[in-house]
Amino acid sequence: MTQKWNTRTGLVHDGIRRSQYSELSEGIFLTQGFAYDSAEQAEARFIECGPDEFIYARYGNPTVRMFEERIASLEGSEDAFATASGMAAVNGALVSGLKAGDHIVSAKALFGSCLYIVEDILQRYGVEVTFVDGTNLDEWRAAVRPDTKLVFLEALSNPTLEVIDIRGVSEIAHAVGAIVVVDNVFATPIFQRSLDLGADVIVYSATKHIDGQGRCLGGVVCGTRDFIRKTLEPYLKHTGGSMSPFNAWVMLKGMETLDLRCRAQAASAQAIAEALQGHAKLDRVLFPFLKDSPYFELAQSQMEKGGTVLSIDVKGGKDAAFRFVNALEIFTITNNLGDAKSLVTHPATTTHQRLTEDQRADLGITDGLVRISVGIEDTDDLISDLLGALNAV
Hints:
The protein is an alpha/beta fold. It has two domains: 7-256, Type I PLP-dependent aspartate aminotransferase-like (Major domain) (Aspartate Aminotransferase, domain 2); 258-390, Aspartate Aminotransferase, domain 1 (Alpha-Beta Complex), CATH 3.90.1150. Helix content is 40%, strand content 15%. It is built from 15 helices and twelve strands. A seven-stranded mixed β-sheet has the order 1-7-6-5-4-2-3, with helices on both faces. A five-stranded mixed β-sheet has the order 8-9-12-11-10. The longest helix is centred in the last third of the chain and has 19 residues, at 258-276. The protein is globular, with a radius of gyration of 21 Å. The protein starts with 6 loop residues before the first helix and ends with a helix.
């Protein structure tokens, strides 16, 4: 969809469709199905639905459609399909267009559940997968083949925040006709427009920044109208991965403050990364907008800000990392991210615990690594809390 207004205006007004009651806040249409005036109308609707016509909540819903249109406008995509969770979005974006015998290339630095889909589920059903170091364009060139159907990557990897050259990967993939699917959660739709960088399909866990307040699960896939309606929609509406109307309403409310929250969080994340850099009890601070980051120049060319998440490597391994995490007062221990509250997790024992020790080592996920999701609290309070907890190590 073409973006009509500037971002903050669109996040409040895009996609609104009002009922005959002219409600101010978006309506929640909590209905499983929709009634028809006649058998002929029902027949016509099952052949082709108009823009304000619906059949069944698994196929579409007015509240869900408002959310889809608003996120498509923000992302600059032709269309979008909302899903029950971020993982339903990833699964749909990958599985809907593949069949046994197809070949895909994926960055190896993936969230644990994403890796499960690519490494276990796709290969179980006959899709050939080649994994590469996503930051190395030579590995992408070597792995992509004339029969490659799709490439998959996280714009910023979880939890080590590697930055992948989306323009470079897209050029390589498009040369053989493969589509590029990007999980853009860490970069956020506020700070990175991956479609403008050459990606074809964008995936979000709306559970993260889009809700932003830890309330509901949700996901969304953005792309061309052909991909969303002819490839993705038939798969999702028949396998049942659709978003509930109530969750869509929560996401619409979250989007109204998305730009404000993300900018405040990113500013705090930058300040925290700079305050912790070089600390005697840390081996490293991982944040793409630190000047000594190996991804600094690439990140600045792709992103407006460095995002809302950073990772630190506490000297002393798991025991030291646990002492640090347990000493925090403001930060909450949980495996979510992108929340208004500041959150912290230990990836090696939570989000990436199913990986082997060798896999974690290959991805740079050490026993001392702690992922920090920065909220909207006062920046000075957050820095004080982190420094105080490091004193406990």
